[in-house]
Amino acid sequence: MTGPSAEEPTPEERIRAELRELRDQVVGVRGSMVATSDGFLVTHDIPDLEPTRIAALVAATFGLARQATETTGRGRFREAVARGAEGYLAVFAVSDSSVVAVVGTNDLNIGMLHYQTRDMVKRISGHMAEFDSGWQGHALPDGPPGTMHNHDADG
User: Which of 1, 95, 109, 134 is the 20 to 30 Å CA partner of 32?
Assistant: First the structure.
């Protein structure tokens, strides 16, 4: 019999659940990820692609788009969508230090993506806040790609 102190999901697990839910709810979402603005992968739900490489590219996209919106007087960066011959890459600001990226097929329903990501980004922002104190010194991305491990227990 299990006690009432069942283990609560980690922030990473809650973020990954949000990403899976997005894929289930929006037609054409192939996968998604959360990364830091300096290119570190937090977690992902992207099958068949190299997530650490995508995290670095997403960080570059975030930085360039943020500079472009500020320089042109468009205010704080919120999102950027790129369309290629085979689908979409959408980048959404979670905070100044983190971003959500969505990889979509040509069938991606952009309107539904925007609708679903609005609230999801707010929830992910809350989960990421739990990383804020630990990201610099305790929660480092050091396991299989797409995972963060908490190193609070030093011995």
Answer: 134
Structure tokens of 3? 């006690």
Contact predicate 55/33, CB 8 Å: yes
Query: Measured over all CA atoms, what is the biggest interatomic distance in the chain, rounded to whole angstroms?
Result: 61
CA dist 80 and 65 (Å) reads 7
Q: What is the distance between the alpha carbons of residues 87 and 132, in angstroms, rounded to a whole number?
A: 33
Q: Judge residue 114's burial from the number of C-beta atoms within 10 Å of its C-beta, 0-12 exposed, 13-18 middle, 19 or more buried.
A: middle
Query: From CA 27, how far away is CA 116, in angstroms rounded?
Result: 11
Write down the domain spans for the chain.
Answer: 11-133
11-133: what CATH class? alpha beta
Q: Which three-class secondary structure state does DSSP give residue 97? A: coil
pTM of the model: 0.80
